[in-house]
């Protein structure tokens, strides 16, 4: 248990230290954090030396103080975590942003989104989005490759759905953080459709949608309702095609809204796996980098 707590604490500390290094002074922030921790541990040691003789002969009081201080410690940590406002995108914050944007046409700022992010319990979503999947996760048969490349021939990622609740994203070896955001944005559109396919689907009228077959603008409600029908009939590749068309039209305004709201997009915390692939006119290759 101590090892698990140590690993979790170290990973969390690294993310928070990076967040607090506003002037790329991560070493300075880390040194000051270590000094503060040393001082707090020293004060705790002195307090323990004072309190221990008072409760040594009273087990009930010892256990009472243990539970009181443990609860205070957890309460203080919970409040400290909820006060942090992260400007970088992770899967949870991006889900909040995309859902709100599709409903209202407005991109939340970091403070508004961080308040809605769950701290203790996992976020409930209709699908499982895996960023950085191997090519085999979306290509089961030869026609799947044609459909995957057709769905996003100009991008540096391929998106596929082996089931209605799983969205796998294959990243090109030259993909950037912008590609991470764009691919997850398309996946969140699919998740939004699947989550609301049995209820009233609300899409803001300012969301632009274009019908490639009719070569004309169509209402956002009509475009998303078409995806709902594809999801209900489990036409997965058709759903991927439609979501890509909507994403290509909506993402530029969403990305501009991210910058205007104060989000950092040149780096992310979307947590991609290490699988990368390469595809061109000569075929494709699949590899995992370490």
Which helices and strands occur, and which strands form pairs?
Elements: H1 2-20, H2 26-55, H3 59-83, E1 88-90, H4 91-104, H5 110-116, E2 128-131, H6 142-151, E3 157-163, E4 166-171, H7 177-195, E5 209-211, E6 216-218, H8 220-232, H9 236-261, E7 264-269, E8 275-280, E9 283-288
Parallel strand pairs: 1-7, 2-4
Antiparallel strand pairs: 3-4, 5-6, 8-9
Helix pairs in contact: 4-7, 6-9, 7-9, 8-9
List its traits.
two-stranded parallel ribbon, three-stranded mixed sheet, 56% helix, elongated, alpha/beta, 290 residues, 9 strands
Weakly predicted, low-confidence segments = 214-218
Broad shape: elongated
User: Can you list the strand order of the major beta sheet?
Assistant: 2-4-3
**How many beta-strand elements?**
9
Range of strand content: 15-25%
Rounded to the nearest angstrom, the radius of gyration is: 24 Å
Q: What does the main sheet amount to? A: 3 strands, mixed
Chain-averaged pLDDT: 85
Number of helices, where a helix is a run of at least 4 consecutive DSSP H or I residues: 9
Terminal CA distance reads 27 Å
- Give the ordered list of helices and strands: HHHEHHEHEEHEEHHEEE
Helix percent reads 55-70%
The structural class is alpha/beta
Give a nutshell description of this structure:
With 290 residues, this protein is of the alpha/beta class.
Descriptive account of the structure:
This protein is of the alpha/beta class and 290 residues long. The chain is 56% helix and 15% strand. The strands form four sheets. Strands 2-4-3 form a three-stranded mixed beta sheet. A two-stranded parallel ribbon has the order 1-7. Strand 8 and strand 9 form a beta hairpin. Helix 6 (142-151) packs parallel to helix 9 and helix 8 crosses helix 9. The longest helix is centred in the first third of the chain and has 30 residues, at 26-55.
């Amino acid at each position: 248990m101590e090892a698990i707590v140590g690993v979790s604490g170290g990973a969390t500390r690294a993310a928070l230290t990076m967040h607090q290094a506003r002037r790329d002074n991560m070493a300075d922030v880390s040194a000051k954090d270590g000094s503060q921790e040393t001082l707090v541990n020293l004060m705790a040691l002195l307090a323990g030396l004072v309190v221990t003789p008072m409760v040594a002969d009273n087990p009930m009081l010892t256990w009472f103080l243990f539970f009181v201080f443990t609860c205070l410690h957890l309460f203080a940590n919970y409040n400290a975590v909820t006060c942090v406002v992260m400007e970088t995108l992770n899967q949870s914050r991006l889900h909040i942003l995309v859902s709100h944007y599709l409903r209202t046409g407005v991109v939340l700022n970091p403070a508004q989104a961080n308040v809605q992010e769950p701290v203790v319990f996992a976020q409930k979503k209709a699908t499982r989005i895996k960023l950085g999947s191997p090519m085999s996760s979306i290509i089961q048969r030869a026609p799947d490759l044609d459909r995957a490349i057709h769905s996003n021939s100009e991008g540096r990622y391929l998106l596929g759905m082996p089931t209605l609740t799983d969205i796998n994203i294959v990243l090109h070896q030259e993909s950037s953080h912008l590609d991470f955001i764009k691919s997850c944005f398309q996946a969140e559109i699919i998740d939004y459709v699947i989550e609301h396919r049995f209820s009233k689907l609300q899409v803001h009228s300012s969301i632009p949608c274009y019908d490639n077959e009719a070569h004309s603008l169509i209402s956002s409600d009509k475009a998303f309702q078409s995806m709902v029908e594809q999801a209900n009939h489990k036409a997965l590749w058709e759903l991927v095609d439609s979501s890509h068309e909507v994403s290509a039209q909506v993402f530029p305004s969403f990305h501009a809204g991210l910058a205007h709201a104060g989000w950092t997009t040149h780096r992310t915390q979307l947590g991609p796996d290490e699988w990368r692939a390469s595809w061109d006119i000569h075929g494709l290759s699949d590899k995992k980098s370490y």
